[in-house]
Amino acid sequence: xxxxxxxxxxxxxxxxxxxxxxxxxxxxxxxxxxxxxxxxxxxxxxxxxxxxxxxxxxxxxxxxxxxxxxxxxxxxxxxxxxxxxxxxxxxxxxxxxxxxxxxxxxxxxxxxxxx
Length: 115
Known about the structure:
By secondary structure, the chain is mostly helical. The protein folds into 2 domains: 5-42, no CATH class; 63-114, no CATH class. 60% of the residues lie in helices and 0% in strands. The protein is built from 5 helices and no strands. The radius of gyration is 22 Å and the shape is flat. The N and C termini lie far apart (57 Å).
């Protein structure tokens, strides 16, 4: 079923400010919809072709609430912060990925300083 979300919201009786805002957004997106649709359909750039990519990071959704509560970076969580078992392995993976990102940025900035 491909119902228009605006029509569906009005049919369900949930009209109001959120629906009006959605209409404005839908109208704005409609003006550039072809460009957005083409960009989405292109897919991800090929690995070898993307020389500007520094790193690819995962979405650490499960670590974010722990990091907020502990007031620490996600890659510095300990068991006392609630990162136990498999979550601690995830923290270690997060650390490795962010370290790779930091080293990539450092290598690029050092290359610029020499130029």
